[in-house]
C-alpha cells in the first residue's frame, strides 16, 4: 500500500499559477489556517489533514533512521523473512480513538490525527510491528481471541506503551513491576475488546487472563538483549 503524498489536485492547480500568486496563496492559506478566516470548514479540515499527514510521514522517516526500537523491530522483521518498508506504515486520518492498527492485508496504519508526541508515534510503530512480527513468525489467527490477546500482551509489554522502552533500548534495563503488568493487562483487554469477534469486556478479560503468564514472558524477538 503506497503512502499518500501531497494532494495531486492541489499540485496540478498550483503549477498553472504565476510564482507571485503562488507565494501569496500560500501565505493566505497559512494565515487563514491560523485565524480560521477565509477558509470554509471543509477547506480548514482538508488543510489540517494535509499538515498532520506530512508531520506523521516526516516523523516516521526520522524514527526509521534514529529510533533504536523502530530499527530493532525492522531488523528483526527482515531477519524473520517479513521486511517492512516505510510505505507499509501508512499515515492516515482515523475516526476511532486508537492510534494505530495492523492488518495482514494492508500492513500498518498510523493514525496521524491521534499522536500527541513523537514518542507516542514511536511506541505505536513498535507496537504494530510487534503484531506484524507475530503474524510473520507464529501462525496467528486474529479471529481467535486468545491468539489476539497474546499478541496484544506482547505488544503492550515490549513496545513501551507502558513506559519503559527508553531505559530498555538505551541501556538494556528491563523492569517487570506489578504496575507494568497491570498496565499491560489493561491495555491488552481494551484492544481485544475491540476485536469484531469479541462479544463482551468479560470475554476479553478471560482471553487475556488465560494467556497472560506465558505471553508476558515470551519476549521474542527481544531475548537477545539479555
Ligand atoms: Zn495492538
TrEMBL record:
GO molecular function terms noted in the UniProt entry: metal ion binding; metalloendopeptidase activity
Keyword terms of this UniProt record: Hydrolase, Membrane, Metal-binding, Metalloprotease, Mitochondrion, Mitochondrion inner membrane, Protease
Highest taxon, organism lineage: Eukaryota
UniProt membrane topology term: Peripheral membrane protein
Single GO BP term: mitochondrial protein processing
Main localization, broad class: mitochondrion
EC numbers: 3.4.24.-
InterPro entries: Peptidase_M76_ATP23
Signal peptide bounds: none
Cellular component terms (Gene Ontology): mitochondrial inner membrane
Region (Disordered): 1-21
Location(s), subcellular: Mitochondrion inner membrane
Pfam families from the UniProt entry: Peptidase_M76 (PF09768)
Residue ranges crossing the lipid bilayer per the database entry: none
Function of the molecule: Has a dual role in the assembly of mitochondrial ATPase.
Family: Belongs to the peptidase M76 family.
Name assigned to this protein: Mitochondrial inner membrane protease ATP23
Lineage: Eukaryota, Fungi, Fungi incertae sedis, Mucoromycota, Mortierellomycotina
Amino acid at each position: 500500500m503506497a503512502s499518500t503524498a501531497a494532494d495531486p489536485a492541489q499540485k496540478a492547480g498550483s503549477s498553472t499559477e504565476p510564482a507571485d500568486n503562488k507565494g501569496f496563496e500560500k501565505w493566505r492559506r497559512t494565515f487563514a489556517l491560523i485565524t480560521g478566516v477565509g477558509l470554509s470548514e471543509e477547506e480548514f479540515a482538508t488543510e489540517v489533514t494535509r499538515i498532520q499527514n506530512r508531520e506523521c510521514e516526516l516523523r516516521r522517516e526520522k524514527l526509521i533512521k534514529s529510533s533504536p526500537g523502530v530499527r530493532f523491530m525492522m531488523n528483526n522483521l527482515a531477519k524473520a523473512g517479513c521486511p517492512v518498508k516505510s510505505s507499509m506504515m501508512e499515515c492516515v486520518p482515523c475516526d476511532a480513538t486508537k492510534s494505530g492498527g495492523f492488518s495482514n492485508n494492508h500492513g500498518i496504519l498510523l493514525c496521524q490525527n491521534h499522536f500527541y508526541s513523537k514518542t507516542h508515534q514511536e511506541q505505536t510503530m513498535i507496537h504494530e510491528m510487534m503484531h506484524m512480527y507475530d503474524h510473520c513468525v507464529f501462525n496467528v489467527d486474529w479471529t481467535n481471541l486468545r491468539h489476539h490477546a497474546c499478541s496484544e500482551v506482547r505488544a503492550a509489554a515490549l513496545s513501551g506503551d507502558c513506559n519503559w522502552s527508553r531505559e530498555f533500548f538505551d541501556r538494556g534495563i528491563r523492569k517487570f513491576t506489578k504496575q507494568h503488568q497491570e498496565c499491560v493487562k489493561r491495555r491488552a483487554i481494551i484492544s481485544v475488546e475491540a476485536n469484531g469477534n469479541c462479544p463482551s469486556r468479560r470475554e476479553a478479560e478471560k482471553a487475556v487472563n488465560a494467556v497472560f503468564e506465558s505471553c508476558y514472558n515470551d519476549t521474542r524477538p527481544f531475548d537477545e538483549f539479555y
